[in-house]
Amino acid sequence: MGSRASSLLREEDIDEIKKETGFSHSQITRLYSRFHSLDKGENGALSREDFQRIPELAINPLGDRIINAFFPEGEDQVNFRGFMRTLAHFRPVEDNEKNKDMISGEPLNSRTNKLHFAFQLYDLDRDDKISRDELLQVLRMMVGVNISDEQLGSIADRTIQEADTNGDMCISFSEFTKVLEKVDVEQKMSIRFLH
Amino acid sequence: MPKKSDTARKLEDVGIEIDGDVESAEEDKKAKGKGAKKPAAGKRGKAAASEDGEDEDEDDEPPRGRRAAKKKKAAQADEEESDDDIPQRRCAGNRRRGKVRESGRDGDNEKSGRKNKKGGKKKKDGKGKGKDKENDKDSDKDEKKKKNSSGDDSKSDEEEESMSEGEMAKLMEEVEEKKKLIANIRNKPWRMRRRLKVLKEAQQFVDKFEGALGKGKGRKLYAYKVMMMKKWIKFQRDFENFRTSCIPWERKIKEVESHFGSSVASYFIFLRWMYGMNLVLFSLTFGLVVIPEVLMGLPYGSIPRKTVPRAEQATAMDYSVLTDFNGYCKYSVLFYGYYNNQRTIGLLKFRLPLSYLLVGIGTFGYSLMVVIRTMAKNADVGGGDGEDNEFTFAWKMFTSWDYLIGNAETADNKYASITTSFKESIVDEQENQKDENIHLRRFLRVLANFLITCTLGGSGYLIYFVVKRSQEFANMDNLSWYEKNELEIIMSLLGLVGPMLFETIAELEEYHPRIALKWQLGRIFALFLGNLYTFLLALFDEVNSKLEEEDSIKNASLWFVKEYYANYSANNPNDTGTPPPIDPADIIRGPCWETTVGIEFVKLTISDIQVTYLTILIGDFLRAFIVRFLNYCWCWDLEAGWPSYGEFDISGNVLGLVFNQGMIWMGAFYAPGLLGINVLRLLSSMYYQCWAVMACNVPHERVFKASKSNNFYMGLLLLILFLSLLPVVYTIMSLPPSFDCGPFSGKERMFDVIMETIDLDLPAFMGTLFGYVANPGLIIPAVLLMVLAIYYLNSVSEAYQNANMELKKKMQLARDEEKNRRNNKDSTNQVMKDLEDLLPNNSRPPPSPPENRAEKKHDQGGKSPKVKPGTAGGGVHLQKDVSLASANPSARGPVTRAPGPRGPGPLPGQPGPGRGQGPPPRRQ
User: How many CB atoms lie under 10 A from the CB of residue B747?
Assistant: First the structure.
């Protein structure tokens, strides 16, 4: 299966993806076979249902948000390029890349981009701000009915209060970045793709 | 655009470029070396690095999570493959490698292109430092390209060989270069930090690739080294996994924690710790005392102390007798009295009495050491990262879910634990915000403490009074049932009422539940000490009476033996041989107070176990059962209403455990088997209580977060250890052992066995040596020395504390600096981009999406005032004409991170004197 799948991938495509995402050749072919096996419709693109079949995403309270992140706005199909573009956020930052960062602009797996990916999970309406309502929705996904609405509200308020620096009662990306400043995002948001 | 500044900028730029470029060129080279030359090795190296990093990250997570992650992302091949199939691939998978190599080449092309640009710039500058090198390298690459261009995907072995030769040459050159760099690093006009970094990198590079250069043997050795390195890393990972999975009950405890909060989990962690310690004590005692006695000692029935007396033999096997630990139980290896006072036993000449005493002392020594060490370690943990949690809720909000969870059950646990942790934080928060009436609160607290002190004093007096009365009663006959059992009844009533009373009074104080728990523990502990006191008092009374009794029996026993022999020779005058020995069951026995004490402790432990387990069964299980199933046919809602489900009683359980351990410590010397019983008890109660808590209890109304260290529990334990140490040491040092039972029979004092060993087994000079050591003239200075040492260590630790505080402050500063730098990075990057756009042959991927940029701008806009110092630091050695630049020369952190392009690109909204030329010329 793997070899057949990878044969469907053209070399130029691979090269382009490689350039865009920084994955190695074998990683791309490997991920392509994975992509292929997820693609139940066999039409070269993944739908939301395809993603929901992944158990980790199915049980994840934020699973829907993660799946959404794979899809460009307004579309419900994602092709391999898009798939890889999203996955590239999770590529570990390698030592020899750190310096290159400075020269070649930001690769998809830079700290900022990783954080931005996480930010988007919470930013439901994609207005680059996490509002109280959005926080509440996410909280409900995370704790269900075990905590009263009132307390959830106060949690959301507290969260915003902690993070908000400019007083607009929303968390912007920069504030989000500041909150997670001490979190080792480079490490935590990295997946060890096989080489 | 003013020309002057432009050229100036270029100059600066180039100057920086050189600084930054050597590094990046090196990096490139390294990448090439990794990516193209030795695909396998490079891959391995990378994989190893990333694995290492991952390891750190994933250690905390259950192995399963890791597996899930693999499953999720690792396509079809598992990790084994990637680790092990590389050598295979090297010889067989040519096609694939070809591709990889091609990609490497592509990368080279790109890089060389970029390098050319830089080289060009350098030429302009006239410095041309790395020019020749560059050219060489480029030509080298060209050569290689030519070589490679002939064959595409189908690569022959020969080609591979030639290519690797070419690469070999290059690698050789690079290594040489690095070596040169190492030699010359002193002369480079760099900052120290940078120099060190470069030096380190260069050395690593040389170490890594020097081996690869050798032909034949050296290369094989290198390959072998790489392989071994890989194997070693893999082994370490496996070992780490293994170690994590070896932590007993980790999952059980995590499960409890996720549903009941860290406070309940802390009890189970304490229980587990206790189990570990008891296991060590158990193996010590059984390995050095019980097993040798069983294997090598005299068998049962050979001597009086190992035989059930004739009078008891009829009932010795009765169940009721055995459950009282009399009969065969009493004359078994479980108790002190069974051991013989033979100096050595068996072929190995095992010195059992000595071993018995040393193990008894060693038990305490080990326990003390472990408790204190654990406390010290916990204190360490506490100081680590407890401070500054300014974003508690935000962190919980954004980072609590573990995205590697792929199992529904684990996910449930995670849900529960997130909920619990939110609840914990809410409680903490509520406590923090409560500050209405501080005076009232203070008054209430003082009142509560006053009340509790009164209660404690009252119960203390009550105990004292009752004990006195019971001593009077002991001398009287025809007592009523109440009078006989008065002490026990009062004690258990106190134990029942006291904690409840304390809890009620503690309501007044309105402490945070975590602190309230500590107070509660401390108070109940004080109350229970009374219990302990009465118990010990009763025991000492018994021991004293037995000691008195013993003297007379000793005479009777001796007289009996003498008479037996006299009778024997009188009855059989013509038998001149030795008379047949007396049946050991018939000899008159002393009371053997040690065994009595041992039996008391064992009985106490057993009854404690029974009470605990029954309480759980009735108080928790039955209650939960009734509430659950009778609820269908009851007039009010049982679950929400009065009986409801039980909560897990942390304070009671912890104290139970602590006091039980005290009993074990005290009793273990007189009943070596007690440790075995205790190990079984802890083991079973782990499972039993875990089950009970999950099945029958509900989480506390206010789930609170336990303090990170269990040090309060440990402190209680230490206190109990000390208290239980006293009576045992007292008996060892000052009570005479029984004359006819136990390993020390026939000696004045138990510790005489040590003197005996010194005299008989050690060379004579050792005896004199010990004699000197035991001299008060030496002991007093030794004590003084210890006091001095304590004083010294104390002041040293204080000094360390101060140093710690300083370091913390420094860390905070460093963090701030880092913050600034990170904030600056965006702007740096933007400027970089602008620069890149200017350059020809731009082969890099399209710039990141525009919203990114917008954010960055916003970022800078919002933060520019804060950012200033960092910026200045960044520009410090390139922009001498910028007034900001020299403002903060100490912040040189950013310089190491390719400060170059900040020169030309001003921060938007911060036009400096020399760089106020508006937006960078990107849009030309």
Answer: 18
Strand partners, B620: none
Q: Where are the domains of chain A?
A: 11-89, 107-188
B28 neighbourhood in chain A, CB within 8 Å: 96
| Number of independent structural domains in chain B | 3
Range with top average pLDDT, A149-153, B182-186, B249-253, B368-372 = B368-372
Q: Which residues from A are below 8 Å from B394, CB to CB?
A: 159, 162-163, 179
Q: Quick: pLDDT tens for A3-17.
A: 444 456 677 778 888
The yes-or-no verdict on residue B260 having pLDDT over 90 is no
How close B821 gets to chain A, by Cα (Å)?
12
Chain A residues within an 8 Å CB radius of B416? 146
In this structure, is residue B106 part of a structural domain? Answer: no
Same domain, B476 and B579: yes
Over range B507-517, report the average pLDDT. Answer: 80
Indicate the length of chain A as a whole number: 195
In a domain, B506, yes or no: yes
Are residue B238 and residue B303 in the same domain, yes or no?
Answer: no
- pLDDT tens track for B867-919: 334 333 333 343 333 333 333 444 333 444 444 444 343 444 444 444 434 44
Answer whether B909's CB lies under 8 Å from B864's CB. Answer: yes
- The per-residue pLDDT for range B83-139, each reduced to its tens digit, is 444 444 444 444 444 444 444 444 444 444 444 444 444 444 444 444 444 444 444
Nearest by CB: A59 against B47, B408, B416: B408
B921, B834 contact by CB (below 8 A) = yes
Q: Are B248 and B687 in contact (CB under 8 A)?
A: no
pLDDT digits (tens, 9 = 90+) for B190-226: 777 777 888 888 777 777 666 666 555 667 787 888 8
Q: Which two tokens stand for residue A75?
A: 């579309």
Residues B481 and B629 in one domain: yes
Q: What is the ipTM for the molecules in this complex? A: 0.76
Could you give the CA distance from residue B913 to residue B924 in angstroms, rounded to a whole number? 23
Which residues on A lie below 8 Å from B34 (Cβ)?
96
- Ranges of beta strands (E only) in A40-141 are 45-46, 78-79, 129-130
pLDDT of residue B361: 92
Q: Which of B72, B101, B393, B409 to mutate to test the interface with A (most CBs of A within 10 A)?
A: B393
**3-state secondary structure (DSSP) of residue B588:** coil
Q: What is the pLDDT of residue B910?
A: 42
More confident residue, A21 or B33: A21
Return the HEC string of B299-349.
CCCCCHHHCCCHHHHHHCCCHHHHHCCCCCCCCCCCCHHHCCCCCCECCCC
Domain extent for B219:
166-246
- Contacts of the segment B62-68: beta carbons below 8 A, 24+ positions apart: B62/B244, B62/B250, B62/B251, B62/B254, B62/B410, B63/B241, B63/B244, B63/B245, B64/B406, B64/B407, B64/B410, B65/B402, B65/B404, B65/B405, B65/B406, B65/B410, B66/B241, B66/B404, B68/A56, B68/B404, B68/B405, B68/B406, B68/B407
SS3 of residue B541 by DSSP: helix
Coil, strand or helix at A78: strand
* In the predicted structure, residue B363 carries a pLDDT above the cut 50: yes
The answer on B375 and B336 residing in a single domain is yes
Backbone φ and ψ of A130, nearest 5°: -95, 115
Choose which CATH entry (1.10.10.10, 3.40.50.12780, 1.10.238.10, 2.120.10.30) describes domain A11-89: 1.10.238.10
Contact indicator for B707, B382 with CB cutoff of 8 Å: yes
Q: Say what the pLDDT of residue B528 is.
A: 84
Topology given in CATH for the domain delimited by A107-188: Recoverin; domain 1 (1.10.238)
Most A CBs within 10 Å: which of B397, B418, B922, as the mutation test of the A interface? Answer: B397
pTM as predicted:
0.62
pLDDT at site A78: 83
